Amino acid sequence: MVRLKNRYLLVDILYPDPKTWPTTPTTKPRNPQLAIHSPTSDTLTQGFLAKMIRDSVAELYGDYGIGKLGGVTAGGITIKYLSPATSTAIVRCPRAAFRLVWSALTYMSGVPEPASGQKRAGTGRERGCVFRVLRVSGTMRKAEEEAIRRARREIVRVKDAEEKGVLGGLVGGGSPIVDCVMDESEDEGMDG
Amino acid sequence: MFYDLNVPYSPDDPEVPHTLNFLAELGYTTVALSQTINGKLPPTLAAPPLPTNAPKSLQLLTRLNLTLADPAQNQRLAALSQAYDLVALRPTNEKSLLNACTNLECDVISVDLSVRLPYHFKFKMLSAAISRGVRIEICYGPGITGSGLDARRNLIGNATSLIRATRGRGIIVSSEARRALSLRAPWDVINLACVWGLSQERGKEAVCEESRKVTALAKLRRTSWRGIVDIVHGGEKAKPEGPAPKQKGAPKTKEPAQPETGGDNLKRKASISSETVPEDADKPLSKREIKRRAKKARFDAKGENTT
């Protein structure tokens, strides 16, 4: 039986630039981990993200890249899941072209921010961001599990850091960060 | 386990803590903060002070990027390497690249790949550097953001030709990101290296093992005698009769010592046993041995007869 093989990329949007971090009313020192993972604006829709990726592939690889994705009319890239609140997305692409899509994501460096007063994305300026691919997997279930696992760990980590901040550094050690590194090493789910 | 050996740094830059936080967030464990010097060296050489508020998971190193235009201008590389953890050379023309590959004492050769280079990389030149333990660096930063289309195109082209010329060996990939925005996560970098022509394993090595080798080798060069003998443990209390420092050596000193002690004993045993076997009376003689003895007896008898 012939089967169309896909790859599911679990993508995470990070905001390293402190100028683009959302302002909070509280004056207490901000947790940088939390700010890096700050939410994306709601104007970034699934269709728009797919269009952005397709444009980036077209810019990097030209007609060859678009052809590899399955032509203009065929979907090629579909966003299976997008959560602006956690800045996480799952992108489906053909298996033959996943490196193209991945490098296109690497070369992207901004999400559109609506200008004040306008509702549609793509009209305002760009907000600098980094797209990080967390996992490449052959089934969507695995990508989803990974997303849940990571979200859970992030929550524990940030909570830990807050508690430590309250204690005033009485408890030393950077265990939450080390645990992140451990997981980073196995985030490659490239089967095939 | 992931290394980024080129992060431009100046102590009074307000963005530094953000960059370091972001590096830690992306999963890097060792970061080299680099300072660039063009042309003449200042009279006093010292690494800039490291930032104090860096995340705990990051190990920070200091690094110097030295732009090398004229091979004749002899830099005080020995003095430099004492002041910095890593010394990288940035040759601007083919002559200085050749000089850096074959002669100069440095840890990393980092060619600016975001401009068009008027020469080709030659395998002989680069392999000379790699066999000396000097690694070649690809900086992906200028190609990601900010520097325009040409920089990106040149970077891809030059990186591909560099990978082709070195056959994928001895390459490290680092960022040279002036802002946190042009940093990328390690696995994204590995994928980029894949697209440029490295294999997946080699790409991973470029961010992990090869970079680790660079730092380890650089450390060894600075602390040890000619990079061969290093004193690991001074041996103060454990040995009351031996005041001489115990030198735990790198392979070169160990090699001759090992066969004398461990290997020789074994061999002697083997040779003794092989000698004793024929003389052993209890053991039945083999047919071959019987034949040989018979022949010998015959020969002796013949000899006696003739004489």
TrEMBL record, chain A:
It is found in: Nucleus. Keywords: Hydrolase, Nucleus, tRNA processing. It catalyses: Endonucleolytic cleavage of RNA, removing 5'-extranucleotides from tRNA precursor. The keyword Nucleotide-binding does not apply. Its EC number is 3.1.26.5. One of its GO terms (biological process) is tRNA 5'-leader removal. Pfam families: RNase_P_Rpp14 (PF01900). One of its GO terms (cellular component) is ribonuclease MRP complex. One of its GO terms (molecular function) is ribonuclease P activity. InterPro entries: Pop5/Rpp14/Rnp2-like, RNase_P/MRP_POP5, Rnp2-like_sf. SUPFAM superfamilies: Rnp2-like. It is an enzyme of class 3 (hydrolase). Belongs to the eukaryotic/archaeal RNase P protein component 2 family. Component of ribonuclease P, a protein complex that generates mature tRNA molecules by cleaving their 5'-ends. Also a component of RNase MRP, which cleaves pre-rRNA sequences. This is Ribonuclease P/MRP protein subunit POP5. It comes from Penicillium rubens (strain ATCC 28089 / DSM 1075 / NRRL 1951 / Wisconsin 54-1255) (Penicillium chrysogenum).
Automatic annotation (TrEMBL), chain B:
It comes from the Eukaryota. Keywords: tRNA processing. Residues 297-307 have a biased composition (Basic and acidic residues). GO terms for cellular component: nucleolar ribonuclease P complex. GO terms for biological process: tRNA processing. Pfam families: RNase_P_p30 (PF01876). GO terms for molecular function: RNA binding. InterPro entries: Pol/histidinol_Pase-like, RNase_P_p30. Residues 233-307 are annotated as: Disordered. It is found in: Nucleus. SUPFAM superfamilies: PHP domain-like. Belongs to the eukaryotic/archaeal RNase P protein component 3 family. This is Pc20g09460 protein. The lineage of its organism: Eukaryota, Fungi, Dikarya, Ascomycota, Pezizomycotina.
